What does this fold into?
Amino acid sequence: MPSQKGKRATWCREESRVKLSVEVRFLKGCGVIRSYIGSTRRCGMVLKDLLSLDLSNNIFDGHIPEQFGDLISLESLDLSNNSLSGVIPKSLEELSFLNHFNVSLNRLEGEIPTGGPFRNFSAKSFMNNYGLCGSTALYKFHLAEVDSRR
It folds into this structure.
């Protein structure tokens, strides 16, 4: 069982609605991100109200769960610096409040979604996933960034 040290959950009340943010740190070697994280109910919590999920800097592998698309209130999702593979689920295009998304430093592949919040993300959100392809706008941004380093 991985250590729970460094695990943090934050709750605050605003306008009679509980805001929930979860940041998980230092769970090295814990394997795949379980699909139940995206379920609408887990352990009595209503995860559809989750605003922020930070699973960065761990050693998660496997795919990004399609069920993350059910986290309809999500504003921030950081999965960077793991060992995730596979594609970015199209279900994430339905997350209309998502304004921060980072999957850089993984092993993702396939086409970057272009609908919903993905229209607003820059190439920085996807860096160092050499199997990703797609958006011309992101590609131009990446080229400009490479040229500026020369």
